[in-house]
Amino acid sequence: MSTQVKVLVTGAGGFIGHHLVTYLKSQGYWVRGVDIKRPEYNPTDADEFEMLDLRRWDNCLQATRGIDEVYALAADMGGMGFISTNHAPILYNNALINFHTIEAARLNGVKRYLYTSSACVYPDYRQRDANVTPLKEEDAYPAQPEDAYGWEKLITERLATHYRHDYGLETRVVRFHNIFGPLGTWVGGREKAPAALSRKVAVAKLTNNPEIEIWGDGLQTRSFCYIDDCVKGITLLMRSDYREPLNLGQDRLISINDLAEVIANIAGIKISLKHVSGPQGVRGRNSDNSRLRKELGWEPEITLEAGLAKTYEWIEKQVRNTVTTGAVMVNGVMYQPLPAAALASGNLGMPVARA
Ligand code: NAD
């Protein structure tokens, strides 16, 4: 009988899930990926990939059959523009996905279960200053998370804890702080700041129009963690004995204006920032990595500049391809945008075909 550990990655068609599958394969695991869509930019490395809607109970039972360990990443999510305007579907879809997946995992005898939470669980009242005090794990309470997205994450964190106490399922909970990298959503409304700004800088470079739109005054701050550090951190946490929620992010704070300038430097162009109204989220957010260092003996190592260089290179290539072919594929849907204007704004117009 094979002793290879069998792992399920939900959300394996998405950004982090796709990279995680590749990493787990390189570590010798047998991997099943599940998602409602296939990875958009590269074929999956999973041994098995099943297209299943995990809001449905029967699909969760199918996904978790014969599995030893689950990495639960599936979620209806996006950047600030998306999560600040889709509260009801986000809460409904993600609650169904997470409640059904963990219960099916328990019934199917899964031994370890890692849930991917978010820095969006931290209360708004601790994040009102751009020069924010880095957030420690215990700062999540008294709870006042950001948006329905953050509330659902917090509830599922509690659910994971109760499944451990009541049923003995070994649960782990990671709170990501802005993960970025190549092969992630870069256009269409769900992309996050590093990808959106990389796209805008690439369009500026290719059209010789240096103006970049920034939502708000651009003085809002965040930290950003490169994807390779993220997948390494998740797997270290899964193997560790630490059972409480743990931050996983970089702790270098940077404003959105400065992030745009770093990307422009990488692209080798000068930009001018145009501040427009748009959702900004909390004023400042940073990760306190004290507990991460203590529990895992490790913290993210890849610098913002090194990660952005790889990300920008990949996004510039996507933008060039789109400008050349005049079409862009997002979530399995083909759009035919007016290249420069549509790409700069991220507004794709009407779809022309489905994959
Ligand atoms: P992503 O959107 O690229 O991946 C999520 C995947 O879940 C998508 O491929 C999507 O199709 C899939 N999904 C959605 N609904 C589904 C359903 N009903 N059934 C099956 N699959 C479904 O996002 P990501 O950036 O890879 O994020 C992965 C996880 O990490 C998510 O839980 C997210 O909330 C969390 N997270 C990410 C970040 C970040 O910076 N990327 C930050 C905090 C938390």
Features of the shown structure:
alpha/beta; three-stranded antiparallel β-sheet; Rossmann fold; 11 helices; 16 strands; seven-stranded parallel β-sheet; 2 domains; binds nicotinamide-adenine-dinucleotide; 355 residues; UDP-galactose 4-epimerase, domain 1; 18% strand
Strand order of the largest sheet: 3-2-1-4-5-6-11
Q: How many structural domains can be distinguished in the coordinates?
A: 2
CATH top level class name of the largest domain: Alpha Beta
Q: What structural class should be given to the helix and strand makeup? A: alpha/beta
Bound molecules: nicotinamide-adenine-dinucleotide
| Quaternary structure type | single chain
Number of helical stretches of at least 4 residues: 11
Q: Which percent range fits the helix content?
A: 25-40%
**What is the CATH T-level topology of the largest domain?**
Rossmann fold
